[in-house]
Known about the structure:
Layout: H1 12-34, H2 41-61, H3 65-76, H4 87-104, H5 108-127, E1 139-147, H6 157-163, E2 164-175, E3 180-189, H7 195-203, E4 211-215, H8 216-219
Antiparallel strand pairs: 1-3, 1-4, 2-3
Helix pairs in contact: 1-2, 1-4, 1-5, 2-4, 4-5
Amino acid sequence: MFDSIYSSPVTTSEFFLMTAVAVISGFIYAWIMSLRIRSTKRFFIVTALIPFVVAAVITFVNGNIGAGVAVGGAFSLIRFRSAQGSSDEIAAILIAMGSGIAFGMGYLGYGVLILVLLSVLYMVISLLPIFEHKSMATDKLLRITIPESLDYYDVFNDTFTHYLSFYESVGVKTTGMGSMFRLSFKVRMKEPKEEKAFIDELRTMNGNLEIALLPYADVQNQL
């Protein structure tokens, strides 16, 4: 079961057997991961197909160092055409690629084991109350847009001290063709029910420009 099915050279029947196992197990793996990861339908379709795609590449390279280097360079270009993903999405893709390497070398049993075992392990660990920081559930990302004429260094300090138990600047960027600044803060409310009053007070200070208060854990990878 855990021996390679490939002979030298790879036969058509061996390749199609690998294809069937890789595609079927890939879709089962994507379905399991979709139970815990919040992402788009397209992401899970791509994740389901990655094991076969990687396996096909490994099969065709088949020890050719020159072809391997060329394929590695081609795959590296994908990084510059893709939006940054969350840690969950990156983990799902890496697991799928790892199984694809096993499939591509003919080790179907190991490929299926990697997909099933790691997806179940991911589910179990994500359900256990470990590696969790309770404060992260209440942390928010505050984004405030201000006109370029406003000195933002300490203008919000009094308001922050009144409403927040913790705040930290995590970034500043220009927007609106340089006519405005967008400030980002990691914040924690003293009283969650005062969120509207907090935003209303900020609006009087930034000229009623855009203000966003978002769950920090969901958007920190976009900073």
